[in-house]
Write a structure and sequence with these properties.
By secondary structure, this protein is an alpha/beta fold. It folds into two domains: 20-248, Spore Coat Polysaccharide Biosynthesis Protein SpsA, Chain A (Alpha-Beta Complex), CATH 3.90.550; 253-321. It has twelve helices and eight strands. The chain has helices at residues 2-5, 12-16, 35-51, 69-79, 94-104, 124-131, 149-167, 183-187, 199-205, 230-248, 252-279, 289-320; strands at 23-31, 56-62, 83-88, 107-112, 137-142, 179-182, 210-215, 329-333. Strand 2 (56-62), helix 4 (69-79) and strand 3 form a beta-alpha-beta unit. The longest helix has 32 residues, at 289-320. The relative contact order is 0.13. The structure holds uridine-5'-diphosphate and magnesium ion.
């Protein structure tokens, strides 16, 4: 465990991070309408953390709950110094809630888990042991998952297969929230949409070393799941975004520019040939299908080319304007 928490990995990312790293471990839990679970959840997490020989903080992010979860959290955070409650102004979704937690985290390692007691905090030490073997991200794999077979397990199987093939990261279970990260890794990531499940993929694009270990999973005791089948579609859309980012993000001109230029050159060549026919050989060219082809190629070529240029400019803006958080915090209780 020592090597994991010793500050030998002081990369530039650490130097640039917003918060000074004052703990060994930050545990981040997104919470949306889970008031029945909160007390038990915090008790279990703290119990596990106390058995570990490291300094820690527990960050609970209330994602605009309407069932009183935020009041419960606020009260707990005021009483216990190692617990921090981050209360978002409204419901932004799990991804934004996690991002808010990441931004507040002051630990060298960040562990995330769900606020509904489905993940087992007792797995945290094992995740950290694996991380200390030299990985940047250790993901939980709910080998024996306790969810509905048709509405949850089947879509999840398909989604995992798809994500694995598209992103090139080989994990069994992308949906598991129980994960451990080195802080440098999460600091470099920007989360949008439902991208939290693609954290391993995004981290992989950033060059992180990733692995997984089997973890426990319980059926939901209180409240109900915040997601239905509709999530599958949104995941597929996000997957397309990820694929696009992975392939073209840095050099859109290489794709659109090359295609556009190809179209322009072919179109011009055909046009020159047709001009030769008309003005030198004095043939009529008004009824030639080639004429149509030349026109289409030229127009689409110019469009593709300018689209590539615009995309290139937008990519610059995208990269240079990343200071903007995707959430607004109402208050932070410590
Ligand atoms: N969650 C959140 N904001 C949301 C939806 C969910 O913070 O808009 C939290 C929720 O409280 C839970 C975690 O994200 O801690 C996972 O949600 P859920 O258990 O409903 O997902 P499932 O386990 O069914 O995939
Ligand atoms: Mg759950």
């Amino acid at each position: 465990m020592n090597s994991l928490f010793s500050p030998h990995r002081s990369s530039t990312a650490i130097a640039q991070s917003r918060t000074a790293q004052t703990y060994d471990l930050s545990v981040v839990v997104p919470i949306y309408n889970e008031h029945e679970s909160i007390h038990l959840l915090i008790e279990r997490i703290i119990q596990v953390l106390q058995t570990m020989s490291c300094t820690y903080e527990l960050i609970c992010v209330d994602d605009g709950s309407t069932d009183g979860s935020s009041d419960v959290l606020k009260q707990i955070a005021q009483q216990q110094p190692d617990i921090k409650a981050v209360l978002l102004r409204r419901n932004y979704g799990q991804t934004a809630a996690m991002a808010a937690g990441f931004h507040q985290a002051a630990g060298r390692v960040v562990v995330t888990l769900d606020g509904d007691l489905q993940n087992d905090p007792a797995d945290i030490p094992r995740l950290l042991d694996k991380l200390s073997e030299g990985y940047d991200l250790v993901s939980g794999w709910r080998k024996d998952r306790q969810d509905h077979a048709v509405t949850r397990l089947l879509p999840s199987k398909i989604a995992n297969w798809l994500i694995g093939h598209v992103t090139g990261v080989d994990l069994h279970d992308y949906g598991c929230s129980l994960k451990a990260y080195r802080t440098e890794v999460v600091r470099d990531l920007n989360l949008y949409g439902e991208l939290h499940r693609f954290l391993p993929a995004l981290a992989f694009i950033e060059g992180a070393r990733i692995t997984e270990i089997p973890v426990g999973h319980h059926a939901r005791q209180f409240g109900k799941s915040k997601y239905g089948l509709g999530r599958t579609l949104r995941v597929i859309m996000d997957l397309l975004t990820i694929y696009f980012m992975k392939t073209f993000l840095t050099r859109p001109m290489h794709v659109f520019g090359v295609f556009g230029l190809g179209c322009i050159i072919t179109g011009t060549a055909i046009g020159l040939y047709l001009s030769f026919e008309k003005f030198i050989l004095l043939n009529t060219i008004g009824d030639r299908p080639l004429l149509m082809l030349a026109v289409v190629l030229l127009i689409s070529g110019v469009q593709l080319f300018s689209f590539g240029l615009l995309a290139e400019l937008m990519m610059r803006t995208y990269h240079e304007s990343q200071q903007r958080p995707i959430y607004r915090i109402r208050e932070i209780v410590e």
